[in-house]
Design a protein that fits this description.
about 425 residues; alpha+beta; 4-stranded antiparallel sheet; 9 helices
Length: about 425
């Protein structure tokens, strides 16, 4: 359900435009405040659970209050009940120029078995130089870093153009927030998007695509003692699973290996049929779930059709028919390494760390996938937290990374908005 935008009035601006650091310096970040915001967000259990009526609303309220104290005009647009996008626009005051967007989300996956954690999943405890808790890496630290990176940029003095700070809902689900923003007039003026997901210092110029398939397996129910009278979807499912391995090999040969995103993968994730309480019954129906991950250059229609033919042929040998449903289809996306957005981010990393960042690819999809697909926005992914820690127990982020990334965001924004030459910047470690 979509509702009309709710415009939140802004309060007094506590920044001092023009009174900040020299243009060659990295804007000064309020490190303590960035860490505290991360903790405040982690302590909110914003789990994207099926049927939940409120997910991001507490985090949206917290950020709206903070943006008001900054004097940032912003609006909270309810994309679904209890699921708002919060979008602020920070004018640079330095004349016309580009529009840069920083994007993040505050919904998280479930903590799972809380007893398996060695810390409180929502305690936001700081220990051993790490901030622990669900969403610490994915991606509440990224949200805090982008907020305080933009705040530092603003307080350092006027800059051309503007910055959009977008905290979008439902990234862990169907990406309803990104789809709503991409369809809104606000997306039309954005020149580039930094998605602040955890990537372990990599500048990810590409992201793998995703296709989720449901294969309905339709056979004939029969007594377990008389299998000749039935057509067993479980046997068909097993044959399809084996055939999918060959289909993956075909896809690797067909589409090759991307330098950062690797190869296409075809992974069976669900095989379900029958009733555990009726072990003497051959079921009449079953379902097989498949998760396909693609790389830039993959023809999704071609690979879906190949998998349809593969599954149909494998099941036909036991008389089972297959009904393929595409549950979700997200393309692989890529931005050229020479794009001004990428060059600015590389320059910001170099300025803060004194070294070149590695390039990489997002192993899954992000809101950036939707923003590129639906609105044509160039997106690059770069944010605090380990690349592989998301969705695991004992999730954490290194505390030092929060301010580091905020400084890079501020420096990168300045490069992008100033339109300066990013190739000759020397190190200026903060």
């Amino acid at each position: 359900m979509h509702s009309s935008p709710r415009v939140v009035p802004s309060g007094p601006d506590t920044g001092v435009p023009g009174a900040g650091a020299p243009r060659s310096a990295v804007p000064q970040v309020d490190e303590a405040a960035a860490v505290a915001l991360t903790q405040d967000l982690v302590r909110l259990r914003t789990v994207n659970a099926a049927g939940a009526t409120t997910v991001e609303q507490p985090a949206a309220d917290l950020l709206s209050r903070l943006f008001t104290t900054f004097g940032w005009p912003h609006e909270a647009v309810e994309v679904a009940p209890g699921r708002p996008n919060v979008v602020a626009v920070v004018e640079g005051g330095g004349g016309p120029g580009r529009t840069l967007m920083f994007e993040g989300h505050t919904d998280v996956v479930t903590e799972g078995d809380a007893d398996a954690w060695t810390v409180d999943p929502y305690g936001a405890e700081i220990r051993d130089g790490r901030l622990w808790g669900r969403g610490a890496a994915d991606m509440k630290s990224g949200v805090a870093a982008m907020v305080y990176g933009v705040r530092a940029l603003q307080q350092a003095g006027p800059f051309p153009g503007r910055v959009v700070v977008g905290v979008l809902c439902d990234e862990e689900g169907l990406m309803l927030g990104a789809k709503a923003f991409a369809a809104s007039p606000s997306a039309a003026g954005v020149d580039g998007v930094v998605v602040c997901e955890p990537e372990g210092y990599e500048v990810c110029t590409s992201a793998r695509g995703g296709i989720r398939l449901r294969l309905g397996l339709h056979g004939v129910m029969a007594h377990g003692a008389m299998p000749q009278e039935g057509r067993n979807p479980l046997i068909a499912g097993a044959r399809i699973v084996a055939a999918l391995a060959e289909a993956e090999e075909w896809a690797v040969r067909r589409y090759g290996t991307h330098p950062h995103a690797g190869t296409v993968t075809v992974t069976p994730t669900v095989l379900r049929a029958g009733d555990p309480d009726q072990l003497n019954v051959i079921p009449g129906h079953g379902v097989l779930g498949v998760d396909v991950r693609t790389i830039p250059g993959t023809d999704h229609a071609e690979i879906i059709e190949h998998l349809r033919r593969t599954a149909t042929a494998a099941a036909a040998g036991v008389g089972v028919t297959v009904e393929l449903t595409v549950v979700d289809d997200r393309p692989a996306v890529e931005v050229d390494a020479g794009h001004p957005l990428v060059e600015a981010l590389v320059a910001g990393h170099r300025q803060v760390h004194g070294a070149e960042p590695p390039f990489g690819a997002v192993p899954g999809t992000t809101d950036g996938t939707i923003l590129t697909r639906d609105a044509g926005l160039p997106t690059v992914v770069y944010g605090p937290g380990g690349k592989w820690i998301a969705h695991q127990k004992d999730e954490y982020v290194e505390v030092r990374e929060i301010a580091e990334y905020a400084r890079v965001y501020a420096a990168a924004a300045r490069h992008f908005l100033d339109g300066s030459d990013t190739r000759s910047e020397g190190g200026d470690a903060a």
